[in-house]
UniProtKB/TrEMBL annotation:
Keyword line: DNA integration, DNA recombination, DNA-binding
Family, similarity comment: Belongs to the 'phage' integrase family.
TM region(s), chain numbering: none
One Pfam match: Phage_integrase
Source organism: Nitrosomonas ureae
Alphabetical list of Gene3D superfamilies matching this protein: 1.10.150.130, Intergrase catalytic core
Classification via PROSITE patterns: TYR_RECOMBINASE (PS51898)
Stored CDD domains: INT_Rci_Hp1_C
Keyword NADP: no
GO MF assignments: DNA binding
Keyword Acetylation attached: no
Designated name of the protein: Site-specific recombinase XerD
Biological processes per GO annotation: DNA integration; DNA recombination
Amino acid sequence: MSLFKRGKTWWVSFTTPSGERVRCSAATEDKTQAQEFHDKLKAESWRVVKLGDKPKRTWDEAAYKWLMETEHKASHKQDMKQVAWIQQFFRGRLLSELTREVIAEVGEVKRTETSPSTANRYLATIRAILRRAALQWEWIEKAPFIRLYKEPKRRIRWIEPEQVKVLLDELPEHLVDLVKFSLCTGLRKRNVTNLEWSQVNLQRNVAWIHADQAKGRKNIHVSLNATAIEILRKQIGKHPVRIFTYRGRPISQVNTRAWRRALKRAGIEDFRWHDLRHTWASWLTQKGVPLNVIQEMGAWESTEMVKRYAHLAPEQFRKHAMVVDELLNDTILTQPEN
């Protein structure tokens, strides 16, 4: 059987002249496109065996292999979505045909549909696949240069404690606990809503996020302050597994109508749930907590991500600047008079 289906997707299967069995996804729900992909692969395998040509790999092969090798990534579902969109342009094309001009045209299509930032995410996926094809698999001599669009600097939105108080007064109780816990820990939304009793120790005042739940795929240690402990104790007995619930069921969505309406009543504009994490980091920075400590507590992999908060710590930096001031004064004061 040269073509068969798995779910809605067509797969190809054939035996090369050398006896090698080839079975892979055609990455399409269209039978005609799948047949064309099959015929192209089969003809290519014949040329390799009979004529000694070097295999000419297609985008489909590279994309599929890359997805299989990177399925451990936290963004795997998003990667699959991006590859599915790219398929409409690259399906069945040889990797050697994907020049910088061809790729730039695809990037421009996505940019007109969405934004430069989103287009860059798709271009980065193309770049990652082609780089692996060149550097690891040696399917192509060199990956083409891919120019990304200029992006505005990442926004840092945070609010003052007084604004938080107003917001909490407008929120329903189950969201109040979630917001306060987020501000106490700096955890990402999903790590808070999915938190289980097996991940906390109220005697030791700690919690932990497992590597497979973390964005960076590394275990996260969370030190719980008194407010966080109080919030957790309030949840005892509400659910046997999950901590944060609403009417007996685990909470999965927080960007609800109640959240948006509370923000509006509180007079807080342009504020996302993720900005609670920015608020946590901003407060710590302003209180003099070193950036490297904040990076460790917030489980940021890159120091560049934490440097976004550096401008909020002028007093902290002024204290260090005074070291030079003291040295200069000591030197001047100790100079002998003429």
